[in-house]
Design brief:
The protein is built from eight helices and ten strands. It is an alpha+beta fold. The radius of gyration is 20 Å and the shape is elongated.
């Protein structure tokens, strides 16, 4: 789980957020522009960014994806996960989700390719922790959506997860227990429902709490326990 850092003041958080926003389409940002957007001085902005990233130039800062994800995690530790995620690109959102899982003690694989039904399937992020497997599709949608928008995506994710489970079955041979795989969609905004098509919908704001509490034994979650076999429970058919 992301460890919260209450030590950051409002000025520091503003500098971090506006740096992330201003560097979204370019890797070089003028400190004067950051200071103006964050309503602070250039020297303060320079000190903040030097403390977090370890580097600034005289009048500007250069940020690649690694430093941008680092800034996003620092903003998230201040309790502002959605603000951090909104300033990321959709590709960075996937990396951000992966890092959140790693901070919650998951081993991760990104852009996992599986085959089934004579076609290929991709899962954005897969997290492994003990017997628990989370198969996550990251949706960096800017506005809350009607549940109808989620239905085909959720159905796709559950099918992709079932094919992933075939691979996991082969890995499980000789083990005393079997992985429990959970199809998920991670959203930027609060989703209109908790489940769709047997897939869990979780917002980025609620992800740390979800990762902290989820177990492979929760009967209220629509786990897949065998290849192409759905665990029946009342929640898995909710829309």
């Amino acid at each position: 789980m992301i460890a919260m850092n209450p030590a950051y003041g409002e000025g520091t958080i503003r500098v971090l957020i506006h740096t992330l926003r201003l560097s979204k389409d370019t890797n070089r940002v003028e400190l004067g522009d950051i200071a103006l957007s964050a309503r602070t001085s250039e020297s303060f902005a320079r000190d903040v960014l030097a403390g977090v990233t370890g580097t600034t130039r005289n009048d500007w800062i250069s940020l690649g994806e690694g430093l941008r994800i680092q800034l996003a995690l620092e903003i998230a530790r201040a309790g502002l996960l959605r603000e951090a995620a909104r300033a990321l690109t959709w590709q960075e959102f996937e990396t951000f989700a992966e890092r959140c899982l790693e901070e919650a003690a998951f081993q991760t694989e990104k852009s996992v390719q599986v085959k089934g039904d004579d076609r290929g399937w991709q899962i954005d992020v897969v997290g492994f922790r003990g017997e628990l497997v989370l198969a996550i599709d990251c949706k960096h949608w800017n506005t809350p959506s009607n549940i109808s928008r989620f239905k085909p995506v959720a159905d796709h994710q559950r099918t992709a997860t079932s094919h992933l489970q075939t691979i996991l079955r082969d890995r499980t041979i000789g083990r005393d227990s079997m992985w429990q795989a959970l199809p998920m969609i991670l959203t930027l905004s609060e989703p209109p429902a908790q489940f769709s098509q047997g897939t869990v919908l979780v917002s980025i704001e609620k992800l740390p709490g979800f990762l902290n509490s989820v177990t492979p034994y929760d009967e209220n979650l629509p786990f897949l326990t065998l290849p192409s076999t759905i665990v029946e429970n009342p929640m898995s058919h909710s829309n």
